[in-house]
Design a protein that fits this description.
Chain lengths: 112, 109
C-alpha cells in the first residue's frame, strides 16, 4: 500500500538554525498538510496546501514557517530560525480530497 | 472551551471487552475523523464520516450531526488495540482540522 514518507525521523538543531523537514506524499494525492504535536499535547494543524499554494494556515504558521512543493513529489516544511518551543513531532499528511488522510510517521524535531 | 472534547481521557479494559470512546464538538463540520496514534507516535486514519455509521472489522464509528456527537466502538478488544484514539473535525468547511486531546486506551490480556 502506498505510504507517506518523512525524513529525517529525528532532527536535532540549535536554536536560531534553519531546518527543512521533508515529506513525500502519496503520488496521486492532491492535498498536503503539516501538523505538529508538542510532547504530551494534542495534534495541531499548521498548514494545508493545494494546487501549489497554501489553502489554510493556523496562527502557529507565522513568517518563520514556509512550505514548498519543489519538484512535484516532495513537500517540505521550512522553519527559518528555530526556537526552543518549535521542538515537537511534525507530521505530514496527504489526501485525494474529501477523503481520509494518510499520515507519515513523523519527524521529531529537537531544538537545543 | 475546546471545540472538540473527548471522553474518557484514559480507559483500561480487559481483553474481549466492548469499548466506547466519545467525541463532542462545537463547530459546524462537513465530516469527522477518527484517528489512531500508536505508542511509537505514528497516526493512522480509522474513519472519516459525515453521517450515520461506518464499520471496519471490529471498529464501528457513529455520528449524530444534530447532537454534534460521535462515538467510536471497539468490539472484542485486544491488547493490540492499545493506542491513543483521536477525534478531529474540520473548522467549518475549511481544511483546518481541530483535534481532540485523545483517549488513551490500554487493553490487558
Amino acid at each position: 500500500e502506498p505510504e507517506v514518507t518523512q525524513t529525517p525521523s529525528h532532527q536535532v538543531t540549535q536554536m536560531g538554525q534553519e531546518v527543512i523537514l521533508r515529506c513525500v506524499p502519496i503520488s496521486n494525492h492532491l492535498y498536503f498538510y503539516w501538523y505538529r504535536q508538542i510532547l504530551g499535547q494534542k495534534v495541531e494543524f499548521l498548514v494545508s496546501f493545494y494546487n501549489n499554494e497554501i489553502s489554510e494556515k493556523s496562527e502557529i504558521f507565522d513568517d518563520q514557517f514556509s512550505v514548498e512543493r519543489p519538484d512535484g513529489s516532495n513537500f517540505t516544511l521550512k522553519i527559518r530560525s528555530t526556537k526552543l518551543e518549535d521542538s515537537a513531532m511534525y507530521f505530514c499528511a496527504s489526501s485525494i480530497g474529501g477523503m481520509a488522510l494518510h499520515f507519515g510517521n513523523g519527524t521529531r524535531l529537537t531544538v537545543t | 472551551k475546546n471545540e472538540v472534547e473527548q471522553s474518557p481521557q484514559n480507559l483500561t479494559a480487559q481483553e474481549g471487552e466492548f469499548i466506547t470512546i466519545n467525541c463532542s464538538y462545537s463547530v459546524g463540520i462537513s465530516a469527522l475523523h477518527w484517528l489512531q496514534q500508536h505508542p511509537g507516535g505514528g497516526i493512522v486514519s480509522l474513519f472519516m464520516l459525515s453521517s450515520g455509521k461506518k464499520k471496519h472489522g471490529r471498529l464501528i464509528a457513529t455520528i449524530n450531526i444534530q447532537e454534534k456527537h460521535s462515538s467510536l466502538h471497539i468490539t472484542a478488544s485486544h491488547p493490540r488495540d492499545s493506542a491513543v484514539y483521536i477525534c478531529a473535525v474540520p473548522w467549518y468547511n475549511t481544511d483546518k482540522l481541530i483535534f481532540g486531546t485523545g483517549t488513551r486506551l490500554q487493553v490487558f490480556p
